[in-house]
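Progress report, Aim 2. The chain analyzed during this reporting quarter is listed below.
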Amino acid sequence: MKKPVVVGIVFAIVIVAALVYTSFGNRRFHCEVCMAYNGRTSCRKASAANREAALRSASDNACAQIASGVTETMGCTASAP
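Predicted structure tokens for the chain:
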């Protein structure tokens, strides 16, 4: 094989490995959060590098399912899980 082809293949492998590591490698905290807002309930799972980020992500995802519009979304995310 020619040198540019080998360099291109190695570069592609490094990029894919970096993407996989950043997507899955640093998520140490996993949680499931259930949110109730205006008589509706939704539960969502999330994972992140720290506890606060995992809780925030799960509650944001749950609120996205049950809240409509900016005002409701803000109210939902401000409430306790």
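Strands lie at 29-37, 40-48. The chain has a mean pLDDT of 89. These observations will guide the mutagenesis work planned for the next reporting period.
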